[in-house]
Design a protein that fits this description.
Layout lengths: L1 E4 L7 E6 L4 E5 L3 H13 L4 E8 L2 E9 L15 E2 L3 H15 L9 H4 L13 H5 L20 H10 L16 H13 L6 H13 L3 E2 L19 H6 L6 H6 L6 H6 L14 H6 L7 E2 L1 H12 L9 H9 L19 E2 L2 E2 L14 E4 L5 E5 L4 E7 L10 H15 L3
Antiparallel strand pairs: 1-2, 2-3, 3-5, 4-5, 4-13, 6-8, 7-8, 9-10, 11-12, 12-13
Amino acid sequence: MSQTAVAGLGAPVVQAIDTPWARGTVAAGFEPVAAAFATAPRGGTALGAACTIIHRGETLVDLQGGFRDKRRTQEWRGDDIALVYSLTKGLTGLAAAVAVARGLFAYDEAVADIWPEFAAHGKGAVTVGEALSEQAGLAAIDFRLTLANLNDEDAIAAAIARQKPKWSCGDLAGNHAYTLGWIASELIRRRDPQERNLGRFFAEEIAEPLGADVFIGLPDHFNRARIARITGFGLPDLFLKHTTMPWALTLKMCLPGTLAFRTLNNPLLLRGPGQLDCETFWRVGQGGAGGMASARGLAAVYGAFAEGGERLGLTPAVMATLAKGHRPPRAGLKDRVLGADLYYSYGFEKPFAEWEFARTRSAFGSFAVGGSLAFADPEDRVAYAWITNQLGTGKWDDPREKIVRDTFYACLENRP
């Protein structure tokens, strides 16, 4: 571990980290974060991982550790990307926020005013904000999804539009594991003058202006050698390696007919999320679970929001809306699919009493199956991203990630 100065007037001193389990840099005073980060690769609970944390525009933590291949022959490098599963929902929320700021639609506008077919089965009053906050009852759809048809947005949008909701909008919320992305994409492409879908809109309005390696739909030109491959889990692992996932959800995921089964096993019937780590899925640009990103890229896009959104043309009104959060469901925060409390808001999760993932309630972001987490906290001006290619079997607050986040905030509290 050597101390080096970053070029530039007033630049902070950083520690260069170069060990088998943690590589990269941390700002002076944040050395304990590197030790915390290294525990997962060193202990074998993560094949590889990466973490980038920005505070007030300054990168305080930029670490990678372990390996990006299952044979453990290729070290995870700083610009490597991985499939980030439900972290994609947060990216979809960011794209929707930019669309609102551009005047394409409003959060309180009825979805059916933009997408008339959506009004079927009494959905005519559902607002954009309610749909993006996973309150519309469309977690599962009566449409057999396969890897071959996931890119047929017209057919899938038609299926969502004609779907009968599983609960009354606004009463409950539930994890729209895949459908959230298609709903957002349909809203954008119906109002965007260029008729761009979610993936193209995100690329051109967010990722490319920020120079961030974050994709909802991996382009052909991207170097596949930079992809950290996923080590997933199978059905037996949910029982044999059970950690923090609610037992009720574990059982429901395996019982045909339950909402959890119908939501989480379409398209991959009981095959586990690791099966999505393939070229076909990378290309699709599925806005609920198909994002590909580096930790650096995720921190960069959330960093633009943490700094107020001006770089992306976000208005103060939109930023205030995201910070405040959508009105919670009338029946409380218990997720109708996952069976645990979660606060969904405009494509993100928000902190609440049972899960204070940031220091302030202004934060918004998303967690993913396997343990990854990314968020922005505009009040604290923090952007955080921790990703892994070895999927854990818990819910949020994966211990491999949480120790890094807790250590970071402890160091931040002690910073002059």
